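Dear colleagues,

As part of the handover before I leave the project, I'm documenting each prediction I ran so the next person doesn't have to rerun anything. This entry is a single chain, and its sequence is reproduced below.
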Amino acid sequence: MDTIAKVVRVNGQLMGEVLRSEACAKCGACSHGLEEKRYYPLPEGEWHEGDQVTISLPDTSAFAASVLAYGIPLAGLLMGLLIGALLGLADLWQGAAALAGLALGWLALKLLEPRLKRSGRFCPKVR
């Protein structure tokens, strides 16, 4: 997944400015779709304001990020539902257990987020 960015200066640092696409605005899966412009730090190089650079995220990284973002909470929901069913809870309580599992899956994802960001696997690369 590639996008073209314009080199701009933000707070004294050269950054790649990406304008939100129409498809991105409709998705709403992340905060990028809520912002008109997004800025990415540029690695050391011969960048000049006004240059255009390509920022890319390998398709495998985008797929893996989607699997994590949707899979972990979904797994929590299903585990909560399964535990509620195995305990023989009434339907209402099974639903509550499923929602609790969903919340725990979301919490696990939030706790993993800093570690995943540090790994750099899901970070865009400038070419």
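The chain has a mean pLDDT of 83. Strands lie at 2-10, 13-19, 37-41, 52-56, 125-126.

All the best with the project,
I.
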